[in-house]
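Dear H.,

Thanks for agreeing to be a second pair of eyes. The structure we're designing against is below in token form, covering all 278 positions.
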């Protein structure tokens, strides 16, 4: 899984056995056995001269089958293109998978978090993932909060309340954000990068990152906006994020962006016969 996730997050690149073992913190003999098995099954291709590995053709059928089962992403793509064309921003679609968030689609020129790609995993760790947690069950929220220092829990709870009230999350620019963005491009199961991300997320927790109250006359440096797509049972099945804001904006401008994003996610929710929880 680590090998496939890593290569999916680095499309167009190829890696040797030694590089993969180092980047994924795997024993070299273990990595060799994994790569041989994946290559034999067609999940990887091995270049005969360079001795490097890339994703293989057997994954095409798996991806197509999975896409048929995840209709929310299909319905979201048209809305994402409309948002990107209209606002001049990048739009990402993510879904929660265990303790991670998986990027499943992208529209617009890359502006977010360095050079992330569909297939990239991001940690579902405070302050990331507030849209998924705002409507989650209490036990899931508590598990999410336990991944952050105790002294930040109150701040994150207030952030989740603000997301539920407003309908979308506002992520502000913060000092560690630029380094975080560059690091996330190499995050997927890359052991050194993951440790650095955990450190940066801890630093973000000590700054105002999830905006709780919007003053329409105030000015904000916004990194991203995120809104949920709800499934038939009222759970968050997908989140659409807008990135690429430049310069400070007023609270009134921020709300206009938020309303437009909510219109798009509402359309996707209706398309998949989802319902917003009370």
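And this is the sequence the design step returned. I haven't edited it by hand at all.
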């Amino acid at each position: 899984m680590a090998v496939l996730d890593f290569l999916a997050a680095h499309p167009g690149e190829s890696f040797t056995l030694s590089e993969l073992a180092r980047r994924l913190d795997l024993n070299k003999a273990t990595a060799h056995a994994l790569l041989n098995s994946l290559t034999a099954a067609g999940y990887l291709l091995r270049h005969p001269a360079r001795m490097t590995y890339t994703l293989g053709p057997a994954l095409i059928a798996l991806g197509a089958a999975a896409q048929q089962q995840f209709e929310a992403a299909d319905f979201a793509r048209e809305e994402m293109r409309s948002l990107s064309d209209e606002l001049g921003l990048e739009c990402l679609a993510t879904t929660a998978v265990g303790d991670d968030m998986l990027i499943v689609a992208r529209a617009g020129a890359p502006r977010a978090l360095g050079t992330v790609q569909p297939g990239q995993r991001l940690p579902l760790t405070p302050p990331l993932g507030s849209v998924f947690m705002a409507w989650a069950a209490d036990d899931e929220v508590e598990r999410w909060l336990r991944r952050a220092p105790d002294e930040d829990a109150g701040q994150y709870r207030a952030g989740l309340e603000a997301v539920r009230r407003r309908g979308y999350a506002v992520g502000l620019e913060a000092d560690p954000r630029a380094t975080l963005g560059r690091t996330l491009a190499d995050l997927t199961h890359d052991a050194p990068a993951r440790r650095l991300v955990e450190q940066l997320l801890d630093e973000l927790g000590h700054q105002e990152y999830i905006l709780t109250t919007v003053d329409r006359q105030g000015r904000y440096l916004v990194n991203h906006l995120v809104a949920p797509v709800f499934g038939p049972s009222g759970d968050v099945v997908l989140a659409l994020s807008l990135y690429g804001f430049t310069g400070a904006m007023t609270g009134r401008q921020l709300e206009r962006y938020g309303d437009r994003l909510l219109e798009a996610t509402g359309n996707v929710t209706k398309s998949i016969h989802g319902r917003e929880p009370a």
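Two observations from my side: The first strand starts at residue 15 and ends at 16. The domain at 2-62 is CATH 1.10.10.10 (Arc Repressor Mutant, subunit A).

Warmly,
E.
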